[in-house]
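Late entry, written up from scratch paper. The run itself happened at the end of the previous shift, but nothing got recorded in the book at the time, so transcribing now.
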Amino acid sequence: MEYFVTKKQKIKLTAGMLYWSLVLTFLLAGQSKIITGTGSMGRRHTLVFLGVLSFLVFSAVFSLYRSMRMKKEKQPVAHAGIWQYLLLFGDAVYVFFEIELINNPLLGEMKIGYMALNVAIIFVLLLALYVLLNSWRLALLIWNVFYYILSLVFYYVYLFRGEPFQFIDIYSMGTAAEVAGGYQFSASSEILVFTVLTLCLLSVISQSRNYCLAKKKIWKVIPRALTAGGLCLLYYLYLNTGWNGDVGILTDLYRPYQTYQEYGTTTGFLCVAKYMRVTPPDGYSVKAAEKIAKDSKKKIDAAQETQQTTDTEGTVTKPVNIIAIMNESWADYRYLGDFQTTEPFMEYYDSMQENTIKGHTLVCIQGGGTAKTEYEFLTGNSVKRFPGMVPYVSYFTHDQYSLVTTLEAQGYQSAAMHPNKGSNWKRTSAYRLLNFDHFYTIDDFDSSAMRIRQHISDQANYEKIIDVIQSKKNPEDPFFLFDVTMQNHGGYTDEAYKGNVETVGYTDSAVNQYLSLLQDTDRALQYLIEYFKSCDQPTMIVMFGDHYPDMPDSFTQWITGKSYEDSTLEEQEKYFATPFFIWANYDIPEADGILTSTNYLSTIMLEQTGLTETSYNSYLSELMQEMPALNHLGYKDKTGAFTAWDAAEPSYEKLEQQYEILQYNELTEDSDRLDKFFLPSVK
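Output as recorded:
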């Protein structure tokens, strides 16, 4: 038994619906661009939505009129009939169009069959929720609130990052919340429309009579048990069958937005999420990994003998301090093509030549996913097998071998630094499993530290690095510090920040702000290098960018004269090539114009230190001779040509497979891991 809501409550709800309807009408009537941001809705769509809105408002008013004529009395909960199930299906259609119209600009090109598939998936899940709750009204209320919030999540994640919301993002909600303040939020006209529609729909549902599937306890338990079992079966089939391929879906894990747009947001999300598990590469076994390690032993032994001879001759200086900096969103758009600015923005970096090795390093990400690039640098592994996941978050269940363990085995103390929360990307636990001795977070920075756009500046970050180096008990103690900066994080719309750099011939405030931030980074870099030039202890610094920022496509098209899609593979790789340098305050070989990839970068650095490398580093050195650079798009072969992975020659396919087998062994195995292969043989 239950009560209908009172007349007073109905009046308030209906008044609220009318109020929001008037707000929507005003916004859509004209002069709405300032309020609605970048969204656009054609006249036909506007009229359709206003028509639906009018119908909902009429229904609500009619419901109010009917309820006022009814006496306030207890009413029994009724059994759901065919109309209630049809309304559930209608709501599935509604939320499908809600999430697609807010997020999918290519909805008009989607095939009817895939639209039906999305609606079917939504309806099945809504039906399951209804059975589990045994309440028609409650299921509809929860489902509509859930899908409205989900639509906003998809919209803003793509707006800010240039990549759609994926399953992995559930694990990094804290990181997203941390940096959300640096972005400017705006609402599209579609969001405004569906905000009002959802409010009205919720009002109508809350005033409706409730319906149940069963009243007796036994008939409540049985359907729930069957539904739970059915959901488990569906989950098993979802993960372990090729249902997506059977219906013609080609899942693009590296450009998931294309999958979302072509096949629908709900279906696309599920297809991409399906491949988020870490699975062994073809041909993997512990014995296979052992054989690969054994086969490379001869080459490794020869390399180690050469290194020992060099150490005896004393021709290679071992650094006391090794500082590695992954600079947030540090990218050089000049690599894509020439363009003019009012002021230089990487002047000091350009001037670095003495005792400097520099060039570009291929990464596997754009716009976000910082922790993937740092994982590649620290471990020597490639994340190309994990397009939607971050190893720190998803796969770190036990200790990991890395540059940290390689250096610590040779007497180095270690520390990580990130001027933000340690919980971001689960770094607190990840760095512990990587065996860092200490982790400096935002809590270790003084409140007076210089900030740019609410983030700790690179200048303040580097001052902290110097302070940590200076605070060593013994200046001669070997020390390794890995730093992840924060200054240039995305969200280049801070009106309080006044930069000096502007593009000539192209106008975009976000682009100008980003280039000005690069100028600030360059000045901080000069401060850091000039300080260590006068440092008494041999010091080596390596710095690289984690990814390109999310910039308008019109900016890169202005630079290159073509779209990314119309570019060759070699040209597309430049969108994933961030700058790097290795510098020392003592003599090291000099080189410029190098193209490598981040999985090789720490090995290249180690080769300049005179320190003992692991067998894995030596293996990577040999692999580098055949494939000097690689990422998710493909690889550069020893002749300098770029090839996509799906067009790889058999010899390169074999190299790739062997590399993935070794990576899988290091990442996932514990008792069966090839420990000697991943640790240096230090006497």
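The first helix runs from residue 7 to 29.
(Scratch paper discarded after transcription.)
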